[in-house]
Amino acid sequence: VQLVESGGGLVQAGGSLRLSCEAPRRTFSNSAMGWFRQAPGKEREFVARISWDGTSRYYADSVQGRFTISRDNAKNTVYLQMNSLKSEDTAVYYCKAESTVLDVDYWGKGTLVTVSS
Question: Nearest-CA neighbor of 91 among 6, 7, 8?
Fold first, then answer.
């Protein structure tokens, strides 16, 4: 199962980016979706998660109020809107699909976000 992230890039502190992650329909419709990130020299960490039906959302404390996760089930895509970016948000961002049917997880290859101060 291939998840494809896009939308990363270079942005100045205080700016915004929107990440996208597209998954196969069969996987997406039955999966909670999440975003994780890994900064250089650090472990991968949780950023945000949205339930399969979009009714529940969770955020890491570090991004609460700045990032918004959403999903478009018609497009099989999950988004991460990132506002008020900080240099510490610099990382490779990964998309994760948590299948509720097969009890397995799928990961994308990541997209790099660089925030310059």
Answer: 8
